[in-house]
Amino acid sequence: MALNIPGLVSLSVFFTLTLATGIWASWKSKKDQQNRNPTEMAIVGGRNINVFIGLFTATATWVGGAYINGTAEIVYLPSKGLLWVQAPVGFAFSLVIGGFFFVNPMRSKNYVTVMDPVQESYGNVMGSLLFIPPLLGEVFWFAAILASLGATMRVILDIGGSLAIIVSACTVILYTLLGGLYSVAYTDVIQLVFITLSLASPWVCIPFALVNSATESIYYTATHQSYQDPWIGKIEKQYLGRWLDDFFYLVLGSIPWQTYFQRMLSAASPGQARFISYLSGLGCFLMAIPSVLIGAVAASTDWNQTSYGLPSPLKRGESAMILPLVLHYLCPAYISIAGLGAIAAAAMSSADSSLLSAGSMFAHNIYRKILRKKATETEVLWAMRTSMLVFGAGAACLAFYSSSVYDLWFLSGELVYALLFPQLCCALFVPSTNTYGSAAGFLVGLLLRLLAGEPALSIPPIICYPACSLVNGTYSQLFPFKTFTVLLILGTIVAVSYLAAVLFQRNLLPHRWDV
Question: How far apart are CA 298 and CA 74, in angstroms?
Fold first, then answer.
């Protein structure tokens, strides 16, 4: 396949427009930050982000490259199907629950990061330990997004994936360094418009794929065997526990992330923050529909009738690229270029959020509160910029190892669910808990999660929960152990905190140990 010159030009225009928007937003933030805290301007936009911008940036943060690519892939896979597409509903519920329970206590106390209530309740030592999983999660997520974008450009433009990774990383790092949340929020508007117009609009991508001569009716193939199993999928009884575990992980595990709270804490009031959270949940759900249709089209296509030929993407191990493959082989060239713009926009809208989140938590919770307690605002701001540069460069290097990066991100995301979510709940809603309970919960959660194993990283389980099975030499935990671990940690934090309080009250422990 020859170099796709029109696609390359189109993508160059998109990158230039995004960078220009980011630079303009940086200029706007500097103009607006007079008589305001510069660090707070960079992290939470001076708490002056309006509802329109807030809705766009909150939705774009979740509707990333992995979201639209992954949704299409799961619908396409014969072993999964639509019933296993949990992210759209899971994220929607997560944003609604977050808005209903978590936004008000966080925004009303003017916190800056998700780590603030944890650090305030349990001290700097626990704060620094609990900072590690979300930091790793943000860096691995940034790397995974870049890897996905590189692979997509290789398919459609026939350029080296490494070049795409480097250009994307440099663009994101530059405008995020310049303008902080303002740049990220305003570029999110541009990126979400690109996604909507080029992928979701009914007059662009979807009709061409649906009416292609190589594609059967998706209404028929939803429930009937055609070129592969029906794309509606099924949930077998023995996998129900895992399905529920994954669903709760998406719903509850998506809450304790700085990317989410950064948007909510930037709103002008708690009421506006809740409104943004609710509406962005609806937006996330709606933005998954085009990907579902594209996955259904892929499952209904005779690939031998296309220039792609046989074997199918499934047998070639290219299921993860099914969305760009459908755009490239089932749509006209100019349509596939528009679709590439959507994928690039989705990738960058999540990548900049991850980079800003990692830098914000390091500068505010580690540098300011632990390393340099007397640091000036300018010093903290430069610490944030330096850390973003380091994290961004590290993520770009990791992006060249795409498969392992995704696996590491999944593991770090599960650690955030197991370790940080119970701690955040207790810090906000159970004020009687203390550092001893937090430390006990951290140790119990870390041990339980790691001892449960991780098949993707070839880590065998030490603890085999009920329904644990050995398939093709790999252990699979079918019991909802992630959610079980979260509940156990919640109980541990409360119980050990109560025990420690009683021991101090009865003078069985010296008061100098009361931290």
Answer: 11
Please check whether residues 74 and 194 belong to one and the same domain. Answer: yes
Q: What are the Cα distances from residue 453, in Å, to 127, 141, 246, 298?
A: 26, 21, 16, 33
pLDDT at 328: 85
Instruction: Please check whether residue 246 is in contact with residue 165, taking contact to mean a CB–CB distance below 8 angstroms.
Output: no
- Look over the chain and give the mean of its residue pLDDT values, rounded to a whole number: 89
DSSP β-bridge partners for residue 301: 215
Cα(42)–Cα(139) distance, integer angstroms: 19
**Residue 471: its H or E element:** strand 469-471
Residue 423 maps to a domain: no
pLDDT at 510: 85
Distance CA(23)–CA(17), nearest Å, equals 10
In the structure, how many helices (H) and strands (E) does the chain have? Answer: 23, 2
From the centroid of its chain, how far is CA 495?
A: 32
Q: What element of type H or E holds 476?
A: strand 474-476
**Domain shared by 71 and 201, yes or no:** yes
CB 141 within 8 A of CB 409: yes
Residue 314: what pLDDT?
A: 92
366 and 446 part of one domain: no
pLDDT (tens digit per residue) in 400-430: 876 666 777 888 899 999 999 999 999 999 9
Taking the model in full, what pTM does it have? 0.93
Residue 314 included in any domain: yes
Residue 412 lies in a domain: no
State how far the alpha carbon of 118 is from the alpha carbons of 104, 125, 128, 360, in Å: 16, 11, 10, 16
Burial of 243 (0-12, 13-18, 19+ CB in 10 A): middle
In a domain, 414, yes or no: no
Q: Is the domain of 391 the same as that of 465? A: no
Rounded to whole angstroms, the Cα distance separating 116 from 97 reads 20
Query: What span, in angstroms and rounded, lies between the C-alpha atoms of 457 and 317?
Result: 19
pLDDT of residue 35: 64
Alpha helices in 98-227 (DSSP H): 103-108, 116-156, 161-179, 181-195, 206-210, 218-221
Q: Are residues 444 and 401 in the same domain?
A: no
339's enclosing H/E stretch is helix 333-361
What is the total count of domains within the chain? 2
Residue 11 belongs to what domain range? 5-407
Q: How far apart are CA 59 and CA 282, in angstroms?
A: 9
277, two tokens: 């959270």
Last residue of a domain, one of 345, 372, 407: 407
Provide the 3-class DSSP secondary structure of residue 475.
strand
* Secondary structure (DSSP) of 421-450: HHHHHHHHH-TT--HHHHHHHHHHHHHHHH
Q: From 266, 319, 304, select the one nearest 36 (Cα to Cα).
A: 266
